[in-house]
Amino acid sequence: MAVLKLTNRPHIISSATVVGNHEHEGPLKDYFDMYDKSNEFGQNTWEKAESEMNKNALRLCVEKIGLKYHDIDLLFGGDLLNQCCGTTFGVKDSNISFYGIYGACSTFTLGLSLSAMCVNAGYYKRCASTASSHFCTSERQFRTPVEYGGQRSPTSQWTVTGSGCVILENDKDKNGVYVNEVMAGKIVDLGINDVNNMGAAMAPAAHDTLKNYFLESGNKPSDFDIIATGDLGYEGYQILKDMMKKDDIILGDNYTDCGLLIYNRERQDMHAGGSGCGCSAVVTCGYFFDLFKQNKIKDMLIISTGALLSSTSTMQGLTIPGIAHLVRLTKD
Amino acid sequence: MICTNNNYKEYVDARAKKSNILKDCTLAFLVGGIICCLGKCMGDMYKALGVSEEIVKILVPVSLVLISVILTGVGIFDKIAKQAGAGTLVPITGFANAVASPAIDNKSEGFVMGVGAKMFVVAGPVIVYGTTASVICGTIEVVVKWLF
Question: Which CATH class is domain A8-169?
Fold first, then answer.
């Protein structure tokens, strides 16, 4: 495992977010570009709705900076649906060269890392990356039917309905946010098999990535304006703090979790907070990039966390392995 | 301390917030009780309308199933069940919701392989093992009666 310093400074030249109703009613509502109150986005199935979110996120991201689809050389994208269909059907008409990726809820930083590496290496001038999740498609695939009447456990999380897209460009002279460092995570499995406590399943992976990052880079948590995990939720957030403390690494007030930021847990009754690929994607593309724009932050770490399970693996009683990919975003 | 699978699981279980059992049980008792009262009222009403006892026994569950399916269809049932828990799950209302919700959910995959094939994805085990249990109990009853 190694921290990869991207010396050519792949710049984030555009970002866009599309969210659902709960996200629009949350504390970050002003930071999102587009939302749909019904969560349907004018479609007749939830899966098509997720694709429509991706389509709009990519379209907005490209249009914002006056580009056309053919100006993008390569697109990375993924979601939680089987065979990444949520992304495929959303981006197919753009005619951009496409790599479909899967990293569960870590997909956002996985795609961002791959785009940044490709741009940094000079293989492509511009790369885009999308990540999405939809509450209803996730419920259907991983849990129970949407209208099924059941009670959620206090540790359960709410899948974010949202899609985030970024475009990176190989231009050293540009000002703005760039990907400074990336670090790929390892699969960490401490034997958690409770699908209603994903935070606990993913926290060890975040701990492994973050601990190794600080060891290898020599940086300290206090060197950053924000250190944000993707979707550990309240449980995972507390567990990660505990685990880091045992390694004498203190995560202070600059440590947060996208799953805790996106909803008002009490008012919106979101239990342990938000989850899903869309969680870290829309919080980073909407909220964090805006903080960079306003010069409120200059240096941050985003660590999207993924639970690498399938509906079959949980039915067979297997554990939930976690993974966490780190990206350091910096602005001069 | 947090390094092996076992002690990590223990640590996670110890710190995880538990459901409020007293609140959940009270709500389940109240909502379940209201549903039973509703059933009883319906039964009395049907009797007052002159419906025979045998038909009333069928009409009451059918009415409760109908109400549950309508509430599931308009998206209200899950909001009540979220608070009521076992109060709506245990009576026949829970069974109706367990059949109606996947039927609605899988409509997008068509009426044959979607609604038809997936309608019992939640309630299927109840039907299979409920029927199996009744066959076993029935067999035991017949054997016991035959022996004694």
Answer: alpha beta
In B, minimum Cα distance to A145 occurs at B102
pLDDT of B2 > 60? The answer is no
Closest residue in chain B to residue A152, using alpha carbons only? B82
ipTM, 2 decimals?
A: 0.89
**Nearest C-alpha of chain A: how many angstroms from B46?**
28
Across the interface, of B6, B19, B72, the residue whose CB is closest to A153 is B19
Residues of A in contact with B2 (CB under 8 A): 242-243, 246
> Would you list the domain boundaries of chain A?
8-169, 177-331
User: Quick check: helix, strand or coil at residue A78?
Assistant: strand
The tokens of A24 are what?
């629009």
Using the predicted structure, report yes or no on whether residue A188 has a pLDDT greater than 70.
Answer: yes
Please answer whether residues A229 and A244 qualify as being in contact, where contact means their C-beta atoms are separated by less than 8 angstroms: no
pLDDT for the residue B3 = 60
List the single best residue of B1, B2, B99 to mutate versus A (max A Cβ within 10 A).
Answer: B2
A177-331 CATH fold: Peroxisomal Thiolase; Chain A, domain 1 (3.40.47)
Q: DSSP assignment of B82-118, as one string? A: HHHTHHHHSSHHHHHHHHHHHHHHGGGG-IIIIIIHH
